[in-house]
From TrEMBL:
GO terms for molecular function: kinase activity; RNA binding. Pfam families: ANTAR (PF03861), GAF_2 (PF13185). Transmembrane segments: none annotated. The keyword Transcription applies. The keyword Transferase applies. It comes from the Bacteria. Keywords: Kinase, Transcription, Transcription regulation, Transferase. It comes from Rhodococcoides kyotonense. Gene3D superfamilies: 3.30.450.40, Winged helix-like DNA-binding domain superfamily/Winged helix DNA-binding domain. This is ANTAR domain-containing protein. Residues 169-230 form the ANTAR domain.
Amino acid sequence: MSYDRGEDRSSRHAELPALLAQFARDMRDERRSTSNTLNGILHTAVELVDGADSGCITTLTKGERTVVAATDEMAEELCRRQYEYGEGPIASEVRHFDVVVADDLGVEHRWPQFAAGAVDQGVRSLVAFQLFSNGDDVGALVLYSNRAKAFGPDAVFTGEALAAHAAIALLGARDNEQFRAGLASRDIIGQAKGMIMERYKIDADQAFELLTKLSQQRNIPLKKVAEELVAAERP
């Protein structure tokens, strides 16, 4: 999807529903991987949100902090710094608010250390959108601008609408990958069961029980036991 940033803002605002609908169709119809979905979300956000020059998407899952997509090294570094400093919208606010805006990082008092580092990189304002928040599972889209007060009401409106569509696309991609991983696990376990049944002349329930006992005795996942068995039998 492409958009001419020089077009009239009112025309752009009027076309927003159609652009978002196309974005949602692209995310759904192409059945992208989570990585491709994230990059698509970020590219579209920088393209559609007025004032955005760069950005990143980051997740916090069970204490693990990950920058999962970034437009460039600078944007990725700024996202990581928020975790390192314990400052910034990701570290302190986006879990509790749908949108966090910093109009001028040159005079930002909420996150002094992070703000000073961002200004040193040429970034003057930012807006962060919550993609999802569920207990320890949090996702955020952060957009940066080289201009102060770059993100006005129209930009926030666009970003909120995009974030809502993006959250659905992202969670859908994650669910699809988990489903595919589940199918792969069942397939490899099925192969291992078949090999045990053939070798020891036992039924499927007995073969599965044997695999389960091996998993418990060795304290490793059932899938791992099955993978080792299949690899040993068919090197």
